[in-house]
Amino acid sequence: MKIFLDTANLDELKKGAAWGVVDGVTTNPSLIAKEGRPMAEQIRMICDIVDGDISAEVVSTETREMVREGRELARIHKNIVVKCPLTRDGIRATKALSGDGIRVNVTLCFSSAQALLAAKAGAYIISPFVGRLDDIGWTGMELIRGITTIYKNYGYKTQVLAASLRSPTHVIDSATAGAAIATMPFKVLDMLFNHPLTDKGLEQFLQDYHKAFQESPVAG
Ligand code: G3P
User: Fold this and answer.
1) Could you give the residue numbers annotated as active site?
2) What is the pLDDT at residue 220?
3) pTM here?
C-alpha cells in the first residue's frame, strides 16, 4: 500500500519525506488555505519536496471551469494529479480531463455508487472519506471494503485512496481492506512508528551492553 501525506505544510512534508516512506501527497483547498500561499505557488513547493503523485484540487464548480483549471494545475508539474469533487459537473470534468491524458483524483466520495461513477468516468484515483462517515455514525471502513470489491469484480483500474484517516487503526484497516493508497495527516504517520515494547526493548539492549563494556560501542 502506498502512503501519502494529507497536508500542504512544507515542514511536515520535509520531515515525512526524510523518513523515506512517503509516496505522494494529497491536498485540498482547506489545507492550502491554512498555509497562506496561493494554490499554484504552494503546490510547486510541494513538488520540490516529494517525488510522487501530488493531488491539487480545483475550486471551480462548473465543468468547463473545472477542466480549464485542471489543465492549468496539470501544467505545474508532471506529478500533479488533478482533484475534482464527486458532483455531476465534477464527473463530467473527470471524463474530459482523463480523455486529455490528465490523471484525476475524484474526491468527496461517500458511497459505492459514487465510486462506480468515478471509475466509469476514467478516474485515476477515487478518494472515499472514512473519518467523515465515522463522524456521522457510519462505519467508514465499510465503504473502502465495498469499493475495492466492486472495482475488483469489474477490473476497474481506478486506485482506491482511503482518505480522511484519523488513526493508525484506520491505516491498518485500509491496508487489510485492500486500499491501494492511504493518505494521512503527519500526526498519524508519526504515530505508526510507536510501540511501547520497541522503546522498552531498546532501553534494555543498550543498558545490558553498556553495563558489560562501559565503553563506546565502536571502540576497537
Ligand atoms: O483531503 C481529504 C481528507 O483526507 C480530509 O480529511 O480529516 O478533513 O476529514 P478530514
Assistant:
1) 83
2) 57
3) 0.95
